[in-house]
Amino acid sequence: MPGEGRQDEAACAGRRIRAGSEISMEIRIKNIRKHFRSGGQVIKALDDVSLTIPANRIFTLLGPSGCGKTTLLRCIVGLESPDAGEIEIGGEIVWSHAKSIHVPTEKRGLGMVFQTYAIWPHMDVFNNVAYPLQTRRLPRDVMRSKVAAALQFVQLEGFEDRPATNLSGGQQQRVALARALVAEPKVILFDEPLSNLDAKLREETRKELRTFLSELQITAVYVTHDRIEALALSDTVAVMNSGRIIETGAPREIYFNSTHRFVTDFIGRTNLIEATVISQQDTLTMVDCILGNVACRKRSDLKPGDAVTLCLRPEFIRLQHGDGLHFQNVFNGRIQSLVFIGEAFEGEIAVNGTQLFIKTAPDSDMRVGERVHFTVDPDRCLLVTE
Model pTM greater than 0.90? Predict the structure, then answer.
């Protein structure tokens, strides 16, 4: 980890980059459609997508492969032309089907970091970073100053003469970020830039990237299928599926309070149980399911008889020895499996013919085959719909 002095220097470099770029750019996407034809079929890659990406925040498009997130990113940057709709960046329309506006990619003032980093192996670090400035034919002294500021910001000062082939994966990711920043873009876009790193390096780089982007206060649009990346990096997450935005919100809001079955299942491992609403109480909604009657967080838009899905996240299932009958939502089961993964035990518990995924403390004394009580706080029992 860099020392305090080095962090201060990087912060100063970040301020120099910001001062030159004056970036405070909101992105508005209105009714974007993009269809592809394959094998005689029409694939709706983007199906009437509307979205506002706030300025100076890290905004993540999260979803499974083929959901349309990369296509949307490519439409923003200008590498794809939508079939309909409008895209506005910083108050300027850069694409409009109805108004016949198409601002070329190179004039949109955007930076991009690709999945492969696109680092040129025949160039040293300086020339990799300086390339966008070289294409503009800037004076050599101006280029040196801008490259130095960008490398200092990503903590690679002193690496200017290092061959690109001698860099680690994490260092190459930093070079790609410096190259995207050196041209002082309005917006920077990331297309799954950490997917080629091993698990430990990905975690370390993710933390660095969050620090860099927060300090820079730039509008960042980040594409990933990795929910941990989305939760750890983002100010706002938009979950996509089948060419549509399903839900948008802060990471904690999406994780704890989503009312969409797809989102709760995709954003983190969970137990989904079919249920029927039986009553509404002052602060609770009661449902009936294979577990029995369950008290859930209030959803006043539901009425008795409605079919819903009960979402129980494994980390909120509390295993208890002995009598737990003084708790609300107490159930009995038998532990079917437990696997030690270091920071926790993961496993399954059998309840009334169904299996629930559970997670418990790494120092738990529970054993496979043991009959236990378990409880779930009603506020952690979410009712979701399609």
Answer: no
